[in-house]
Write a structure and sequence with these properties.
231 residues; alpha/beta; Rossmann fold; Arc Repressor Mutant, subunit A; 8 helices
Amino acid sequence: MQRTKPKVLLAEDDLALGYVIKDNLSDAGIDVVLCPDGQAAIDKFDKNEFDICLLDVMMPNKDGFAVAKKIRQQSDMVPILFLTAKSLEEDRIRGFETGADDYIIKPFSMQELLMRMDVFLRRTKKMHSEIAVSFNVGNLRFSYTDLQLSIGKETFNLTQKEADLLKFLCEHSNRILKREEVLLNVWGKDDYFLGRSMDVFITKLRKYFKTDPNINLETIHGIGFRFNVPL
């Protein structure tokens, strides 16, 4: 039977905060599994299916980065959102490098958290309910629905954010895209730190494109990018 309520994995070692978040999400119609540390979160993820994961960064028995890495070894589709008191740029970039889709800095309002989560929950529901969305670009075959990029006999599994970015590039290929245009359409906000995380994802996509010399994700300095593909 298909679940009607979204199911969320919440890993937060501050249990007072954890229960506040859980109660508010439950009131919003979301099923929440609260874990007090990183290892407990990994154990729960191994035995359950979740629609989104909310991970505190600083936790005992494996931190949020380690949990995200473990989740990404098993699934590229489940969105990961970091809850962090850290505002250092390096920590945010590291979070995206380990597979996170977004982050929210403590203290945050429940309304902001729900809005951030809703972006991913709606997107995931849309991906599973609509007709398959795919693109053929040069020698690349990209299935947005399945989060897969194929080049010849090699197939790469993408995270949701990588797929969102690549979908936007494919829909606007061979034209100059301003940085703020990409940020607003893919991340929903033009923000300095999100801009740095976007650069991480651009670098990841470029690694996939190396096998096809006819495809070039070009940086237009001071402006943005152009996804050059064969016409």
